[in-house]
Design goal:
The protein is of the alpha+beta class and about 200 residues long. It contains two helices and eleven strands, in the order H-E-E-E-E-E-E-E-E-E-E-E-H. The radius of gyration is 29 Å and the shape is elongated. One of its GO terms (molecular function) is transmembrane signaling receptor activity.
Amino acid sequence: MWLWLVLLLLSLPGCFSIQGPRSVRGLEGGSVSVQCNYTADWETYEKWWCRGADWTSCQILVQTNGSEQVMKRDRVSIRDNQSHLLFTVTMEDVRQDDTDTYWCGISRHGPDLGTSIKVTIDPVGMILSTWVSPLSRTTISGRAGAPSDSYIRHHYILLVFLKVPILLALVGAVLWLKGPQQRPSIYMNLSSDLVRDTAP
């Protein structure tokens, strides 16, 4: 049973040799960057980015030449950082019809290595379209575990325009409600003091 499982894992394209995020999201009109990591000994091999759910027939959009030189084709560029064992793919001016399954891959003798990534492009109106300027609709990073610049920016926008005013309103309401409750007790204390003072 274990031998069958090991053979199955080793037969998967790119198993252990290349890794990337499972999925990334971007806003229409912006750019999406994906980082794919690979293990040592693959530094000088050609890296590629292809589109299509079927591994055997996906269309290669851009490919390196085995060096660290940036290669660009249409709206897609790729750059290999061999000292850090990763390559970065950037898709610019993305559209909703760019939503698809893509693959980070490494060319080699025999079957290539690869890992699939789901790319989803959302319409601008879906996420705070009135608060996000065209210049800020860029770079949804595909680094696993790292919050994207766009996510952080949207969080601060929500913090300033939504969370802080609500918090201030709640504090104001609590203080306003506490105010009337304290007045009667002060009045009662003053009244009792006056009664005591005037008593024979």
